[in-house]
Amino acid sequence: MLGLMQDAPINLVSILQHAGRWHGEQEVVTQRVEGGIHRQTYAETLTRATSLAARLRDWGLRPGDRIATMGWNTHRHLECWYAVSGQGAVCHTLNPRLFVEQLNYIINHAGDRMIFVDLSFVDALIGRLDQLPTIEAVVVMTDRANMPVYDTGSVALLCYEDWAADTGASLEWPTLDDNTASSLCYTSGTTGDPKGVLYSHRANLLHAYASCLPDVFNLSARDTILMIVPMFHANSWGLAYAAPMVGAKLVLPGADMSGASVQRLITQESVTKAAGVPTVWNTLLDYLDETDLGLHPLREVVVGGAALPASMISTFRDRYQVGTIHAWGMTEMTPIGTFNRPKAGFDVLDAEGQLHQRLKQGRVPFGVDMKIVDDQDDDVPCDGETFGRLLVKGPWTIDRYYGDDASALAHGWFDTGDIATIDSEGYMQITDRAKDVVKSGGEWISSVAVENAAIGVPGVALAACIGASHPKWGERPLLLVQCRDGQSVAESDLQKALSASLAKWQLPDAVVFVDEIPLTAAGKIDKKPLRERYSSYLTSGQ
Ligand code: AMP
């Protein structure tokens, strides 16, 4: 028997329609790529997105077309997301920090017809249009005054504000099947070619609902959220949907994620919550250190994408009265997997117990299921000690990659590539990426544990632990350290700090101070070049 409720299919544009109608005066604030601050309301955002959608329709947009964006977090980029997906086409976010060859591969693999591009990237893009045969038009996300001039041959070059915004056009948004593709995001992948994760309206909508839950982002109309996490990486952690869904004020940093810019936006726009990767927060904390400025009225930062260091928790809390919430997820999960909001009973733990708990990646919301398994794919106990490969499933977890025939799942579960423990209360803790674990003799050493211990030492900016070849043990940990600008760290201090939290056999065999630890396009430590350079360090001394 079927239920007798309305059949109201999901189109993500309904989120913006809701925000425009019921939170119409709420602001979307953008730090413009061209400089200065731009303000518009959700009502205006809806009008502009509708206008853009009408233009795209008239241009010949077809359902299922892939339309790319290469842009920072701005109001225009937000409008593109809704205008494209809302018509049943696919908004394909490109990570501009990727290598040119990777970007070309991704654009051609997706078969993008049009690219919306920010001024920061337009020059590089136009220079290689000849390698992107599917592109018919480039829309520069700027106004007439800032519009660059290029000869793009048969590819149309359009100015966003002239072409799309405020045409006054209206359109009927289509009714879509819930599982219609909404957006596409490629994971940079450490081996092989990047792979496309194709989100659906249903997955994004369910994910947005879950994002707002008290144990997840805890988002409401009373919040002002600074969305630092980029729209071009991991679906901006779903915040581009969750914030309008509840009518939160949305602050978009544009191209400037410097400490000065982030601090200014937080205090001037009365930001209550902010979300980003640890490197962004390190930059902010360094800036605050130099300037003595504060973060009022910020209440909490959500830290994910890489492990939250203990020192970051205490600095935010003790100096700035800001809470840190640890979160874990991945592109393949839209991306939220776990959030670490304490359960009842947390307050009775002593300071050390609380810290221990906060460092975990957290618990799953409804919509994600997880388990850990051994090499034989057998479940291992959730005792907080035994670690295994972390598998996940749920309505916003990937089934298969774009263009692949084969499922990405084994027995219905997606292997995250992470190694983790889960404790009896359901808190998951990543011990490593499967490929980063240091395999020393029969034992596994968590590179994350070594890095976390090192990063707490004053003067350390970044730490990367890799497995270096060893004649007896197969691999032993080698620690590479980048010091903060103008500071140095004594190796003895480092070893002392590491000894406090690691067993003797887990201690790195050597520490190498380097000028710069490379980062990936997503701002995470890139261990691949480090392995290439240092994997024989312990045997050859270089
Ligand atoms: P991406 O799809 O690029 O966002 O990368 C996802 C991967 O980032 C995960 O599989 C983890 O290895 C890593 N990651 C994400 N969040 C965390 C976290 N809080 N702590 C440690 N690693 C994380």
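^ adenosine monophosphate complex. The longest helix spans residues 42-59. The first strand starts at residue 27 and ends at 31.
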